Amino acid sequence: MISSGVSVVFASSNLQPRMVFLVRFAVLFIFFCCFLVTIRGSPDQGRYKVLEMDSKGNLYLYKSALLCKNEIIKRLTEGNYKLAEPSILGLSKEFPVLNCQDLKLKVPSAASGVYWIDPDGGSHGNAFQAYCDQQTDGGGWTLVWSYTFTAYSSFTSNSNAVTPRPTWTASGANTRVSTTAPLSETHYEAMNFALWRTIGNQSLIKSNINNWIVCSEGTGSIVRQKTGSVKCKLAKQVSQECAGVVPNSLTMHGYGPYLNSNSHYYYFDGNTGSNWPTHDPCGNNQANHLKGVANPHGNIFIR
């Protein structure tokens, strides 16, 4: 806390009233900023970073703490500070979290990246690494599937499909099946589908050729493979087409599930001999996806 003994004397006889007000305001503002450094460092609130050092010993003072420079130096000199211990949760197989939402709750400051998770919460012997999105729509998302396309340049041809595919039920699909957890959005693999429902029931669907959406279960559920209604919202407008359109139903199909608005919005077609994997932001089962995109792909996250 700022010492109550600090005082400021203004020679008001030599300053215009407006100038006096501005100087007083500036001093109070500096005191307020330094006060925030104290209260935000308390255990009950998010910590407020003021200082960092790189591997070469260079010190970096955050711009937001610049006005408090003298106060920071004073506290460091007097030893008036607490040591911050970084969390080890999720950083090794010995200390996994249940999933990325569990990590978000226990370590709110954790950045997006790869962490160790153990969805069943039992022995850590079956813990594995997974990618966490800790930013989109509040974070806490576990990446369960990253896919690309077999014929993106001929998108509406029957030879185009998503690959690889998860181990969900799709009796007519013929693209490669994966049970390997993807470690990035362009690491094209799929976590064992049986684990998806142990992680959560909300889905975040991303693509760099279609809009990002967040969907909650209704009568339909992608993790339970149930056809029915879903409640979706836009997470990011990627396309300039049909702003604000989102799906409202899910259908489990023999080639892979699809999300519908008027018609197909996302169709995860896993068959290279029939149909094509619609990514239509208008939800009309048309080729309204973004064209000419490098590394075209999509992802499903669960929370």
Describe what this molecule looks like in 3D.
By secondary structure, the protein is α+β, with helices and mostly antiparallel strands. The chain folds into two domains: 12-78, no CATH class; 100-302, no CATH class. Helices cover 16% and strands 21% of the residues. The protein has helices at residues 17-39, 69-78, 100-106, 193-199, and strands at 51-53, 59-61, 113-117, 128-133, 141-149, 162-163, 203-207, 212-217, 228-236, 249-251, 258-260, 264-267, 298-302. The strands form two sheets. Strands 3, 4, 5, 6, 7, 8, 9, 10, 11, 12 and 13 form an eleven-stranded antiparallel β-sheet that branches. The protein has a two-stranded antiparallel ribbon with strand order 1-2. The longest helix is centred in the first third of the chain and has 23 residues, at 17-39. The protein is elongated. Residues 1-15, 26-31 and 35-45 have low confidence and may be disordered.
Portion in helices: 10-25%
Count of helix runs? 4
Biggest beta sheet attributes: 11 strands, antiparallel
Which strand-content bin applies to the residues?
A: 15-25%
Taking all residues together, what is the mean pLDDT? Answer: 86
Looking at how many chains there are and whether they match, the oligomeric state comes to single chain
